[in-house]
Amino acid sequence: MTTAEIDRIKEAFARADAARDPMHLIHRNLYGRGIDLYIGNKQAASDPAYLAEHGVGTVVNCAVNLDINMVTNVDPETRNLPFGWSPVRYYKLGIVDGPGNPAPMLLAGYYQLKGLIDQTFPQKPSYPWQGTGNILVNCRGGRSRSVTLVALFLHLECPSDYPTLQAAIDHIRVARQLHPDEWPQAPKQVLVDAAQWSADMVAMIRPFEPATITEGE
């Protein structure tokens, strides 16, 4: 790819970013449990008021080069950088936006996203969240890494709506208002290939998945 082509893509990204909202609804009412799934960018993920406005109770940041300090309730034992609790359940999956990721990282991301929906917490002050709420999956721009992870998840969990990975990607491109000029890089093909490999692996693993681990097991 030439420098001119790269510059043209960057310009297209910048124009599209300026024109669209930081976050979009991708899928309503997951599993019939009232959980809506969103994709967004770094601005959406770092705005607690905006997240609360959309009922987001869980954030999955899948960008390795984006760290957001979500802590609003600082633990009194903090001595250096603050740690404690955020107003949302916050999960991190560090994916490179392009080559460099071992393929199982997207497979892990699928299981992380699937698992957090069914995850339950003990009744302790150190687990302050009530329920999952709506879910935001974000990366820096909300157009490649997050799109790939959510497409993989929707294809595997809602196959009647998204019978192929490409069907899920096509839906997300429209819902997230990704301009056709962005499509060659939104999402990047190397991530799509890893997602397809992950989908194939899940089909092999599913017959052997154990039930949720409970106390005493």
From TrEMBL:
Q: Which residues form a coiled coil?
A: none
In terms of Gene3D superfamilies, this protein maps to: Protein tyrosine phosphatase superfamily
Q: Membrane-crossing residues?
A: none
Q: Which InterPro entries match?
A: Prot-tyrosine_phosphatase-like (IPR029021), Tyr_Pase_dom (IPR000387)
Q: Which domain of life is it from?
A: Bacteria
* Sequence ranges assigned to domain Tyrosine specific protein phosphatases in this UniProt record: 111-176
Which protein is depicted?
A: Dual specificity protein phosphatase family protein
Native species: Donghicola mangrovi
